[in-house]
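In response to reviewer comment 3 from the previous cycle, which asked for concrete evidence that the modeling workflow produces usable outputs, we include below a single protein chain processed end to end. The sequence was submitted unchanged, and the resulting C-alpha cells are shown without manual editing.
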Amino acid sequence: MSSWLLFTPITFVVVMIIMMIILRILGTVAPSVKTPKNSGKLKAYACGEDVKNHRIAPDYSEFFPFAFFFTIMHVLALVVATVPADGGKAVAVIAIGYASALAIGLFILFRRQ
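The workflow returned the following C-alpha cells.
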C-alpha cells in the first residue's frame, strides 16, 4: 500500500464509499415494506410477542450505587497513578486528602442503604 492511503481524510472517504456500496447491495437484498401499518419490520422486537402496551418501566435505582462506586474508584485510581513521584509532601497530602474525601463519599453512599 502507498503512504497516501494512510492519510486520514483519504482513508475516511475510501471507507465511506465502500460502506455506501455495501449499503446499496444490502438494500436490494432486504425485504421491502409494502404496508408499514401491518408489517412487523418497523415494530420493536418483543420475542415474537405482539405487545399492545408497554408496561415495563426499568428502575435504575439499584444500578446507581454500583455505577457511582466504579466511577469514584476509577477516578481515584487515575489520580493516585498520576501523582508525580518528585512532587513532595504537598502533592502527597493533596492526593491522600482526595482519597479520604472519596472514601467518605462512598461511606455515605452505602450507609444510606
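The mean pLDDT is 78. We consider this sufficient to address the reviewer's concern, and the full set will be provided in the supplementary archive.
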